[in-house]
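Reply to dn_fold:

You asked what the input looked like. This is it:
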Amino acid sequence: MVITDFLERNARMYGSETALVEINPSDERDRAVTWRDYSLIESANPNAPYRRELSWKDFDRRANRIANLLLSRGLERGAKVGILLMNCLEWLPLYFGILKAGCVAVPLNFRYSSEEIRYCLELADVEVLVFGPEFICRMDEIIGKLPRVKMMFFIGKGKPAYAEDCCRLMGFCSSSPPPVALEPEDYAAIYFSSGTTGFPKAILHNHRGLVASCETEQKHHGQSHSDVFLCIPPLYHTGAKMHWFGSLLSGSKAVLLRGVKPEWILRAVTEEKCSIVWLLVPWAQDLLDAIESGRIDLRHYYLDQWRLMHIGAQPVPPSLIHRWMKVFPHHQYDTNYGLSESLGPGCVHLGVENLSKVGAIGKPGYHWQARVVDEHGRDVPLGEVGELIVQGPGVMLCYYKNPEATAETVKDGWLYTGDMARQDEEGFLYLVDRKKDVIISGGENLYPVQIEDFLRRHQKISDVAVIGLPDSRLGEIAAAIIQVKEGQSCTQEEINQFCKELPRYKRPRKIIFAPVPRNPTGKIEKPVLRERYCGGKLVEKQTTN
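and this is what came back:
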């Protein structure tokens, strides 16, 4: 079985039912009208604002048209096709069309600079790029520096002269399935690492891995045909797409919300009757802050059908979940751990039945194994900190064109995650920190995530990041970059007083009040902070367990 089989099955079984909805609140013309007044089928008026939807049958037909377009241009099996789009109704049909043609989809981070786009296109051997209007300026800067890219297709208004109109060309192509026989071992997609620990690496996966990710996600969260999934994170990232795979497997509706304002999230849940919502930590914090401050009144929304809230992509502060359960006591909760190298979420997950274990990332996921090891690959005793390694059907094939990095990361089938963790006597895993983020101060290992979780308990703190700064005496000291809640003021003295509950060696020795940068998947951009506050210098160190 290959991943496109699920789409074709859904087109047969649920053809006229809604597969995807796109909502873009910033495109409202008249804020007095409701979304239902503006609801329409996308194919009737593709330029209408606000809300567009697509049936399973039209989803599959559009994917077929994309595939046949690529084949008509002479693309061969294994050719790489880049996707540079914001979340939109066209994104997933394009992705599946690329796969149906036997090609390899290469999603690109929409925050990449022009030079990062060029680098990634070159690294992944991309021959065709499909991009949208938000990226014209960036593409203008590098258009003459892409020797491997043979064709450029454009989706949206304002097409530049060097690109072709993708939607117009699709209209001349057959909506019948392309004559391409796919196999589970065929290459399917190249994703890029998030870049939080350096420049992105290209991660290669096959169809077998994508299918396994579908099964893992549906097993963990029990998506049924009646569920509605609200997807907010960017689709270029494995996390968002692999959670949507639960909807693909169950043939259920998904809503793509282009915006993260708390009011927009609650309104989408209400209007579209969403039952499953995947959030990132900053969005959950913003939502709770708005509710607790009284800016949002939950009585204005209908949320009874919302059954599951889950969070991933970064360590989740236990204090955040305790706050959430006070506001939404009827919700199931799950947290998911994964990497792009393991096809996103699912290699470890908490499980909705384990609410008492909030703070843990959970146990190995469906068809996965996990261990905590020392620097020699030997299991450490329970309770001790080591590197988390995982093994399962979603482990990457390789870092594309980087055998050295592949050999360092995948050993005897085990993926070395670079994350430090510990395991309790019941088998639950607790994430401690990134291996590269561990601070060694005066010979003591400090784990920034632990300090960050403590500081987030302070009622005035909206977000916090802890990094190591060079110190001539201790080697490194812990510095806390603190983002204060809107409308609040805070002093260093207040923070120092609050931190007296921590052991002395764990207390931040430097407090910096400033915004905390995060990437689109919610991860703190610590390289940015290191560059900003210590010129990017890192102390030479050997992490010990």
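The two ends are 42 Å apart (CA to CA).
Hope that clears it up.
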